[in-house]
Design a protein that fits this description.
The structure is a homodimer of 361-residue chains.
Chain A (H helix, E strand, L loop, with lengths): L8 E5 H14 L6 E2 L9 H9 L5 E3 L2 H9 L4 E7 L5 H10 L1 E6 L2 H10 L4 E8 L7 E2 L3 H11 L5 E8 L10 H21 L8 E4 L2 H6 L8 E2 L9 H6 L9 E11 L4 E5 L2 H4 L4 E3 L2 E3 L1 E6 L4 E2 L5 E6 L3 E6 L1 H6 L5 E6 L2 H7 L4 E4 L5
Parallel strand pairs in A: 1-20, 2-10, 3-4, 4-5, 5-6, 6-7, 6-8, 8-9, 9-10
Antiparallel strand pairs in A: 1-11, 11-12, 11-19, 12-18, 13-14, 15-16, 15-17, 15-19, 17-18
Helix pairs in contact in A: 3-4, 5-6
């Protein structure tokens, strides 16, 4: 598929992406729930269009710059799921003229500023910490919740939309059972909050998102909306979590081989930290930054034997490979690397994909 | 210095950069040696111009795209210090029309292709492994060296320039004494090689580079050229290696504070893996992704008490801070983060700096 490659090239398998989108949508019970996929993973109008063609109408992004991009690509219902920065107010004000914009707040300081300054209609979610401990108001801290809901009602432009959580601790839960426990706990916490304000706010929602839970659960019917993002591409990390298989991974970095050391069984590729990102998982007590694949005419496959990226410099990747495999590879070849964290790899490659039709997983 | 910041902003202190350039140049004994700084760290014409003003005429880059950029900015003597990819031949051929281009080769496969195909005049360095074990021919493997030197002579466009090594193992050496030992060993190895071919090639060079050695050594007078790169900015990693102090670090990521958790003493900033990179060092048995600073009107300083980035998501940074410090920070503030690895941070921020005059260290 690839010759004369002068630098790493990101390749995206369209068939796999579309299969993932359809599969996730099929799990969502339309009577109870909606899919509001996180578009930070791909941040790309073409990938976005595959969601639109599958019937998705509402999306999640990380910041107003991303929202601006997707509004320009005709998306009309966007949640910015990142603790709101009050300096974003002029930007979201402009976006709210043509689209329905929801923001997310997790503290009273920001909410106070917002209630003083907001002059455009904005939906507001309160971010709830259900155990990940990154951002959000602790789900048990109803005093703060009460105060925030009251503050919200002070400005007629701010429409209270409900409670949102990201259960990022599913990534390190260690088993499918534990992931399900986290999901059930988060549902119970957010249900209680929804119930608490039901008399005054009868139509608020509860929103949940992360790829491990949404991939592992057979049906998505509890929360009002689900916001997974990574599932459109998947990656090596999700494979080890149990959220996907090798054949689901839709993104691969094609890397020129520049050196092979047959004493150490190492393949050196042009494909380093600035391309893959330095995110890693630990396998056999050693960091793993990606897994090597070989290309066919129209796809890629995992070769027999071990072949993992074990070290990354700025532009170099060092693949430790089985000796038989190492003998077959020579400088000038092109190999693929499945990324550990596809969101970061896609961002770092400037969202510049070669899209192939590929193969349905 | 900063208000209404809608996204992370990279700030570069020009005075510190210029001081580092002058200091490094002052160490290089002009009778024996040259500085050929690695421009991958900044990859920026403006920063490059500070080197040119200080008298630097020769530079190092990582790939022909970077070489192309600097040739367009009037640089005329460039070494591409990355194992040569034969697909780069048309690009370097064009560059060699207006500039003196050196390439680096570490294996016979590539050299064979080169000797068959090169039709532009190129200087060629053989990359030597003096103990880092990333790329390069083992310094003891004179059989391969002999064969490569012979191969080189087969094509009249290829001019044998000498031996080049990168002692990347200085980064983990653990002490200044051990860094000096690595330096001396590398010098001894490359001297032997230079001597071996002296009868046939009387004017070949030996080239060495890495910021830890070049920063720690008081005088640079052994190798024909030195190729440090990171020293122009420095970073937290170099500080812990002992190559610089806090006041030398010339690059800081200004990050909007979006949330503060006073129970956990955590400051949440917009500034994550896609901005800083996920490179880290381990301090107190915990990963450290950056150190927090506070801004003054025209610079920044380290506050009293602990304040380190201890966790990074795609766009979030979590700073664990001393409780007194944490009390003073609120959402809407802007804090700075000194990066662990400035080369990666600069790349990921698209080399888009706000340059301030700053303060001489």
């Amino acid at each position: 598929m690839l010759t004369n490659l002068t630098k790493p090239l990101l390749i995206l398998d369209k068939s796999r992406c579309i299969a993932h989108i359809k599969q996730m949508l099929a799990k969502v019970d339309k009577n109870t729930s909606k899919l509001r996929p996180h578009f930070k993973t791909h941040n790309h109008a073409v990938v976005g269009s595959w969601f639109a063609e599958a019937g998705v109408k509402q999306i999640t992004v990380s910041n107003p710059f991303m929202a601006e991009y997707f509004v320009a690509h005709k998306w009309k219902d966007i949640t910015i799921a990142f603790p709101f920065n009050i300096s974003w107010l002029p930007m979201v004000g402009k976006l709210a003229v043509t689209a329905s914009i929801n923001i997310m707040v997790d503290n009273e300081d920001t909410l106070q500023q917002l209630s003083l300054k907001a002059m455009a209609n904005l939906g507001v979610f309160i971010k709830v910490d259900t155990g990940y401990h990154r951002t959000g108001v602790d789900y048990r801290d109803v005093k703060t919740m009460d105060s925030m809901v009251a503050q919200l009602s002070q400005n007629k432009h701010l429409l209270f939309k409900g409670f949102l959580t990201h259960a990022g601790h599913t990534y390190t839960a260690g088993s499918q059972g534990k992931i399900k426990t986290i999901y059930n706990q988060a549902f119970s916490a957010l249900c209680d909050l929804k119930e608490r304000y039901a008399d005054t706010y009868s139509d608020i929602s509860i929103s949940y998102g992360d790829t491990p839970s949404c991939s592992i659960l057979p049906v998505l019917d509890k929360f009002d909306e689900y916001r997974p993002g990574n599932f459109v591409f998947y990656d090596v990390m999700q494979k080890y979590i149990g959220a996907c298989t090798d054949k689901d991974i839709a993104l691969v970095l094609a890397c020129p081989v520049v050196s092979v050391n047959r004493q150490r069984n190492e393949i050196v590729v042009h494909g380093g930290a600035i391309h893959l990102s330095k995110d890693f998982i630990v396998k056999n007590n050693t960091p793993l930054y990606g897994e090597m694949v070989l290309f066919t005419e129209d796809s890629w496959y995992k070769p027999e034997g071990e072949a993992c990226v074990r070290s990354l410099s700025q532009e170099h990747g060092i693949i430790k490979a089985d000796s038989v495999l190492c003998q077959k590879i020579k400088p000038g070849d092109v190999v693929g690397v499945l990324p550990v964290h596809s969101c970061l790899t896609a961002f770092q490659m400037g969202y510049d994909y070669k899209i192939i039709n590929g193969t349905t997983p």
